């Protein structure tokens, strides 16, 4: 329930001030879920839901900056989503392209595409590559845009990349099998060199990962929010960070 404006504003400010800055997650992954259901409940088109969801992204990145997050990964389109109705998919890809261009144009965040760009239309892949190039020198918040992304596909791509690399060095299959370890996969993920996500947020009330960052999220904390993504507010984000900060992280120990 939304609080009356004066009370709500006070609550939000106190919530922000109460966050322990030494326990803020370095890397936050967000599964942007619920655009279609948001549109349906309001009698709007699916495309309208996706546009409203895209409009919310810059807010999330600003909130992340405010609390000291270093990396944000946005899951905007999964490999499964690529099998949607052709007309809906074309509209969604166009919205994603516009959103990425607008984020890059701010020159505020460094963007990196994570996913199988080869599965995307050339136009979409080009928009992602252009955004990466345009923001390559930007410092500050690092933003992974996961488009055409699937956790299983990422792991398969990482193994394939490692095997190809070793084969090019002349290693035999026996040598590769004898020395293969988990670090070899980690070093060939889309997000190689980045910290693993400390906190994963999923909106819309769904309580599952759906294949998001399967390798990297082994020790992540999860936070499931009832709000559909277009309705996700700063207070929802702050509650997620506060919940994370209050947990005792054991990393499997």
How would you characterize this protein structure?
Helices cover 47% and strands 13% of the residues. It has 253 residues and is α/β, with parallel strands linked by helices. The chain has a single domain, classed as Decaprenyl diphosphate synthase-like (Undecaprenyl pyrophosphate synthetase, 3-Layer(aba) Sandwich), CATH 3.40.1180. It has a six-stranded parallel beta sheet, with helices on both faces. It starts with a helix and ends in a 7-residue tail after the last helix. The model has no long low-confidence stretch (mean pLDDT 94).
How would you describe this structure in keywords?
253 residues, alpha/beta, six-stranded parallel β-sheet
Shape: globular
Highest-level CATH class: Alpha Beta
Instruction: Write out the strand line-up for the largest beta sheet, numbering strands in chain order.
Output: 3-4-2-1-5-6
Q: What is the alpha-carbon Rg in Å?
A: 19 Å
Percent of residues in helices comes to 40-55%
Largest sheet: 6 strands, parallel
pLDDT averaged residue by residue? 94
Topology-level CATH name? Undecaprenyl pyrophosphate synthetase
Element order: H for helix, E for strand: HEHHEHEHEHHHEEH
Give the strand tally.
6
- Look at the helices and sheets and give the structural class: alpha/beta
Query: How many angstroms separate the termini?
Result: 38 Å
Strand content: 5-15%
Task: Give the low-pLDDT segments.
Answer: none
Give the CATH H-level superfamily: Decaprenyl diphosphate synthase-like
CATH architecture: 3-Layer(aba) Sandwich
């Amino acid at each position: 329930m939304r609080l009356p404006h004066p009370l709500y504003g006070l609550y939000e400010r106190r919530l922000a001030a109460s966050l322990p800055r030494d326990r803020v997650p370095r890397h936050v992954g967000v599964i942007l879920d619920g655009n279609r259901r948001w549109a349906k409940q309001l009698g709007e088109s699916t495309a309208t839901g996706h546009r409203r969801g895209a409009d919310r992204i810059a807010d999330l990145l600003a909130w992340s900056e405010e609390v000291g997050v270093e990396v944000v990964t946005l899951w905007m389109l999964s490999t499964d989503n690529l099998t949607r109705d052709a007309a809906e998919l074309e509209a969604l890809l166009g919205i994603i392209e516009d959103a990425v261009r607008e984020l890059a144009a701010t020159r505020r965040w460094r963007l990196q595409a994570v996913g199988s760009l080869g599965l995307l239309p050339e136009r979409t892949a080009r928009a992602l590559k252009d955004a990466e190039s345009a923001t390559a020198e930007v410092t500050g918040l690092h933003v992974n845009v996961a488009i055409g992304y699937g956790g299983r596909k990422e792991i398969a791509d990482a193994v394939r990349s490692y095997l190809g690399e070793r084969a090019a060095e002349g290693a035999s299959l026996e040598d590769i099998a004898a020395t293969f370890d988990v670090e070899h996969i980690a070093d060939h993920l889309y997000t190689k060199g980045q910290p693993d996500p400390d906190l994963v947020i999923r909106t819309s009330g769904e309580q599952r990962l759906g294949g998001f960052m399967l390798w990297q999220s082994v020790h992540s904390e999860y936070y499931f929010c009832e709000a559909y993504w277009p309705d996700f507010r700063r207070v929802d984000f702050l509650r997620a960070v506060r919940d994370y900060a209050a947990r005792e992280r054991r990393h499997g120990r």
